[in-house]
């Protein structure tokens, strides 16, 4: 019950601050922080799939060459 009263007091104080201090709610006068660069990492599943595709393409190529050598 005590934590609920504390939480309510904090909420009331925050609401008062937002109502009385315009820098909390004025988005246009805020200083913009430089955006952090986004680091794109490949999905591990895609890496696994690329390896599997390369393996299957190699098997297909070996099969095709074995069929061509059989036909000659």
Give a quick precis of the structure.
With 72 residues, the protein is mostly helical. The chain is 65% helix and 0% strand.
Number of helices: 2
Proportion of residues in extended strands: under 5%
Please state the structural category: mainly alpha
Backbone CA Rg: 31 Å
Major sheet size, sense and barrel closure: none
Note the overall shape: elongated
Q: How many β-strands, per DSSP?
A: 0
Unreliable stretches (pLDDT < 50, length at least 5) are none
The arrangement of helices and strands along the chain is HH
Mean pLDDT score, rounded?
86
Describe this structure in words.
The structure is a single chain. With 72 residues, the protein is mainly α. Helices cover 65% and strands 0% of the residues. The protein has helices at 2-20, 44-71. The longest helix has 28 residues, at 44-71. The termini are far apart.
């Amino acid at each position: 019950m005590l934590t609920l009263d504390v939480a309510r007091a904090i909420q009331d104080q925050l609401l008062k601050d937002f109502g009385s201090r315009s820098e909390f709610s004025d988005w246009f006068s805020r200083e913009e922080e430089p955006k952090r660069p986004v680091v794109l990492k490949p999905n591990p599943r895609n890496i696994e799939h690329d390896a599997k595709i390369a393996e299957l393409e190699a098997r297909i190529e070996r099969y095709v060459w074995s069929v061509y050598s059989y036909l000659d």
